[in-house]
Design goal:
Oligomer: single chain
Helix content: under 10%
Number of helices: 0
Largest sheet: 5 strands, antiparallel
Number of strands: 25
Shape: rod-shaped
Order of helices and strands: EEEEEEEEEEEEEEEEEEEEEEEEE
Radius of gyration: 33 Å
């Protein structure tokens, strides 16, 4: 038999250190701050003892891609960042990524997410238009749908359409001077995130058309001088004179309510002459003029 003395056994154990959780959730144009993009991600607060900085990178993606540069150095516990650093969000799309490393100096990077750049234009005859945008990039399963939102002049944004492509055609409804659009992308599965585009606006000139006769005879039909489209020109000035050049009616912000009277008294049947000063800096047309007949 063999006797072993003063022996020592050594046991080695391999330890695998998992990478800390780091995922870019979305980049979106801010709803509240002009010319700014918000970046959201999953933080590292749940990793005990993790003290490595996280680096947020940005580059311009469209129309010309630029080099990556460090936008910000972040600390543990942060999960969002608002980028307001001289962005031209109406002309460019931007790509973002996060990087950090483990205590073993192993580099960890998120996927790249790209913001939505929305552009638009109108037809030569100004009766229609279209908007286009790049696909949102970065979500693992892509985009489920896009919502098209529109604002007319100073009104509220309203949902116009839901699409799966990256363009949308529309008709002009003679209902305002400016259409502003935003597109909202929704993530397919994953974290159910959404991302908003920049605001893109197109301009129109609402037409005005004056009828040349009205019949104020209290039959409820054609009782007033009608100018189609005039209600949009809130600062317009309508002046009407008789054949002798005497003013018989004048009003700022005409609302199709002249019933052929002067100081409450009916004017005689005949031809009258009007000038409508539009007083609207958003259009090239300054005034329209012509004649209108009162028939009783």
């Amino acid at each position: 038999s063999t006797i072993l003395c003063d022996t020592e056994a050594q046991v080695s154990k391999q330890v695998t250190v998992l990478a800390p959780p780091l995922e870019l959730l979305r980049v979106t144009h801010s709803e509240d701050v002009d010319n700014a993009i918000q970046i959201d991600w999953t933080g590292l607060a749940a990793v005990e003892g993790y003290d490595k900085p996280q680096f947020l990178y940005r580059r311009t993606n469209s129309p010309v891609a630029s080099a990556w540069r460090i936008l910000a150095t972040l600390t543990d516990g942060e999960s969002e960042y608002l980028d307001q650093s001289l962005l031209e969000t109406k002309n460019n799309s931007y790509a973002y990524r996060l990087e950090t490393n483990t205590n073993c100096e192993e580099s960890i990077a998120t996927s790249v997410h790209e913001s939505i750049l929305l552009t638009g234009g109108v037809s030569d005859d100004h009766t229609s238009g279209s908007i286009m945008w790049n696909d949102y990039a970065g979500w693992q399963h892509g985009v489920k749908r896009y919502e098209v939102w529109r604002q007319v002049d100073d009104g509220e944004f309203e949902l116009l359409e839901t699409v799966t492509g990256n363009s949308f055609d529309f008709s002009y409804g003679e209902d305002g001077f400016t259409y502003c659009f935003r597109v909202k992308a929704f993530e397919q599965d994953g974290n159910n995130q959404w991302s908003l585009s920049n605001e893109a606006c197109v301009n129109f000139e609402p037409k005005v058309f004056a009828y040349n006769v009205f019949t104020p005879n209290n039959d409820g039909l054609n009782e007033c001088f009608i100018i189609e489209g005039v209600e949009l020109y809130t600062q317009s000035l309508l002046t009407v004179v008789d054949r002798s050049g005497h003013e018989v009616f004048s009003k700022v912000g005409y609302k199709n309510d002249w019933d052929g009277t002067r100081n409450g008294q009916p004017l005689p049947t005949g031809v009258y002459y009007y000038v409508l000063e539009l007083n609207e800096p958003r259009v090239a047309l300054e005034r329209i003029n012509g004649d209108v007949s009162i028939m009783r």
